[in-house]
């Protein structure tokens, strides 16, 4: 009888603690990232490759004028930059290049859950006031300025 009581007690303790199938799974998902290339609307040439603008003149802020992460990449005559949206919701951001180019953007973020982890994805990027085309490369948009 004593063994039955002990087995029942252990079983009840196990039931109360449960078994979390996600225990021990690291859900480290980085923020959504997209890439931007700026090309001259008249020549079709990248504005940094042609030296029309200097990469040091790029500023990216949100509506509250807080800096948004931007990483400029210049390799093999390809000059693009990655924008990282560290947010769980949609954001409006403002890209400034040089003294004369101001590009407002709206980045729509959606939440996606799969198994044990929650991820955030860019659903849509609206560029206001400029012609935009999606590149053949995933995650890259080309803005004509």
On the 0-100 scale, what is the average pLDDT?
Answer: 83
Provide the succession of SSEs: HEEEEEEEEE
Largest sheet: 5 strands, mixed
Strands, total number: 9
- Helical fraction: 10-25%
Radius of gyration: 24 Å
Low-pLDDT windows of residues = none
Total helices: the number is: 1
Q: Which structural class do the helices and strands define? A: mainly beta
Gap between N and C termini, in Å?
83 Å
Question: Beta fraction of the residues?
Answer: over 45%
Shape: elongated
Strand order of the largest sheet: 3-4-1-9-8
What would you say this structure looks like, in words?
By secondary structure, this protein is mainly β. 11% of the residues lie in helices and 46% in strands. The protein has one helix and nine strands. A five-stranded mixed sheet has the order 3-4-1-9-8, with no helix packed on it. A four-stranded antiparallel sheet has the order 2-5-6-7, with no helix packed on it. A hairpin with a 3-residue loop joins β5 (91-97) and β6. The longest helix is centred in the N-terminal third of the chain and has 16 residues, at 2-17.
Notable features of this structure?
145 residues, mainly beta, 5-stranded mixed sheet, 1 helix, elongated
Task: Please describe the topology of this protein.
Layout: H1 2-17, E1 33-39, E2 58-62, E3 70-75, E4 78-84, E5 91-97, E6 101-114, E7 117-127, E8 131-134, E9 140-144
């Amino acid at each position: 009888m004593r063994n039955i009581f002990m087995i029942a007690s252990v079983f009840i303790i196990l039931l109360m603690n449960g078994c979390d199938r996600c225990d021990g799974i690291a859900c480290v998902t980085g923020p959504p990232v997209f890439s931007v290339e700026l090309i001259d609307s008249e020549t079709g040439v990248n504005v940094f490759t042609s030296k029309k603008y200097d990469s040091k003149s790029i500023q990216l802020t949100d509506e509250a004028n807080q800096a948004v992460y931007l990483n400029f990449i210049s390799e093999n005559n390809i000059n693009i930059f990655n924008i990282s949206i560290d947010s769980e919701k949609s954001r409006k951001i403002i890209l400034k290049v040089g003294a004369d180019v101001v590009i407002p953007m709206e980045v729509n973020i959606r939440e996606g859950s799969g198994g044990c982890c929650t991820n955030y994805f860019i659903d849509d990027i609206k560029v206001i006031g400029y012609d935009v085309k999606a590149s053949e490369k995933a995650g890259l948009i080309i803005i004509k300025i």
